[in-house]
Amino acid sequence: MTLTQLIAQYGYAAILVGAFLEGETVLLLAGFAAHQGYFSFPLVVVFALSGATLGDQLYFFIGRRYGDRLLRRFPNLTPSAQRVNRLLLRYHASVIVGVRFMYGLRVVGPIAIGMSELPAWRFVLFNLLGAAIWAPLIAGAGFMFGQTLQWLFADIKHYEEVALLVIVVIGIAINLLRKLLHMGR
């Protein structure tokens, strides 16, 4: 089985699972693959948005269900959890949307938010909004990376030819200068 066949058969499922778990690297690569023609960019965004939303919803409900057990097991986290709860109740929209963009907090963030008193419907709404911003932005960065590489390599080829011509001209000039200096002796 070739790489193209693997991507065609399992690519969108890999995007869904990758976005469900953490996602940035998988989504950047998927955006790049979309630029190369292996994927449809809109489908990459749809699968990433779906996986990211479902993953964070699961983590939120894990925090909602098991958060008390975590705090009983680690009581020194209680003051921090109370502080986070106060911040969430005041700035819930920006925290929910923003946690998606904070590296290393994609799993822990929704669990902590689930431990708060924030109503679940608000998390669902802003989680979906955050995923709708995140998926095209990160996939777009991968797509633009592919575009930049294409542009850069096309330019390198153009400059390679010019550089080769300059090197040849300089070589001829040095050779002529040596001959002229040698004849003058």
Task: Give a quick rundown of the structure.
This protein has one domain. It contains 6 helices and no strands. The chain has helices spanning 3-21, 24-35, 41-73, 78-99, 108-114, 120-183.
Descriptive account of the structure:
- The protein contains 6 helices and no strands.
- The chain has 185 residues and is mainly alpha-helical.
- The protein has one domain.
- Helix 1 runs parallel beside helix 3 (41-73), helix 2 crosses helix 6 and helix 3 (41-73) crosses helix 6.
- The radius of gyration is 27 Å and the shape is elongated.
- The model has no long low-confidence stretch (mean pLDDT 82).
- Keywords: Membrane, Transmembrane, Transmembrane helix.
- Residues 23-142 form the VTT domain.
